[in-house]
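Suppose you are handed a protein chain with no further information: no name, no annotation, nothing but its sequence. What can you learn? This example shows the usual starting point.
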Amino acid sequence: MTSIARTPEQLGAIIRRHRKLSNLTQTGVAAKTHLRQATISALENGEHGVQLKTITDILAALNLELVVQPRSANSRDIEDLF
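A reasonable first move is to predict its three-dimensional structure. Written in structure tokens, the prediction is:
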């Protein structure tokens, strides 16, 4: 399943969903990545300032990868609607 994230909040929701599908707790992911549980929580809550290395470590622990591609021609952010 492909998921698209355009904001930190969307990325956090995707990571949370995959973590739960993997039957892992935040503490379990923290143990696999040698990060604090609070760091996993911050990322899942879309907090700004999470380092790219932290994100890639968490993605690897969940067997996910980061793909960068051009936005689709008719994609719109919620901010564009107002």
